[in-house]
């Protein structure tokens, strides 16, 4: 059989070009919390035809996610406003590039259904389990302040969500300060009661944060911009297709359907670029933590935002 050398060389050239393209493909290392972003993207089919590869890492809470960002083990992740401040105070070289606005109800203080604790004023002398520096910790401190109390009036036990829930249900602590989807799970499956919800106490802001190193890499920066737009589009789709999305979310996070649906439905979240009002809210959060003695130095948050990322 005769081989057309010209055609063979052309074919090898094309193969080589594809191989080179694949070899140079960007890998975006994304840190998620309990399926938060991935569930939406998968359900809305927004992970189809990606021009880059995603390497997922899932974290049970923001504190270890912040550590991963600080260690440059991931490029981008979703993180609450308070944990972002702690990461920055620890020297993390990261920028918040977009904000996810949500109803703050599900960031709450939970008690057992038969608990005698009926209001924030009843927290004096009680023990509260939460993650140190989490949005749960923040809301607990705000709830205490609303009742004229401080951290000195309670005993904090800093535990990850699974251990904190166990401590509450077994009676070794009086209160668990947590966030969604744990709040919805606790209400629907463990029959725990919301003592204080986050409305009026917490901004409801979570951020998409990226490392400075990733943002300086133009290929990764483009991938992050594309990822953010897909994430925003996926969230819009999820609220328009609540039942379908909730089924996907339940499978990814391993929660019952009713808990998964409740946790997402009542958040009423939407992504937007970081504006001046959001920056002001973040500064207020930083000032509150500093006044509480949890941030060793006063932080100016101005330099922690990248305002160049837009959404359609």
Structure, described:
By secondary structure, the chain is α/β, with parallel strands linked by helices. The protein has two domains: 27-103 and 204-304, Periplasmic binding protein-like II (D-Maltodextrin-Binding Protein, domain 2); 108-196, D-Maltodextrin-Binding Protein, domain 2 (3-Layer(aba) Sandwich), CATH 3.40.190. The chain has twelve helices and eleven strands. It has helices at residues 5-23, 36-43, 62-70, 81-89, 135-146, 161-169, 182-189, 212-216, 218-240, 242-253, 257-265, 276-291, and strands spanning 27-33, 53-59, 76-80, 94-101, 108-112, 127-130, 155-158, 175-178, 192-196, 205-211, 270-272. The strands form two sheets. It has a six-stranded mixed beta sheet with strand order 2-1-3-10-4-11, sandwiched between helices. Strands 7-6-8-5-9 form a five-stranded mixed beta sheet, sandwiched between helices. The longest helix has 23 residues, at 218-240. The termini are far apart. Residues 1-23 have low confidence and may be disordered.
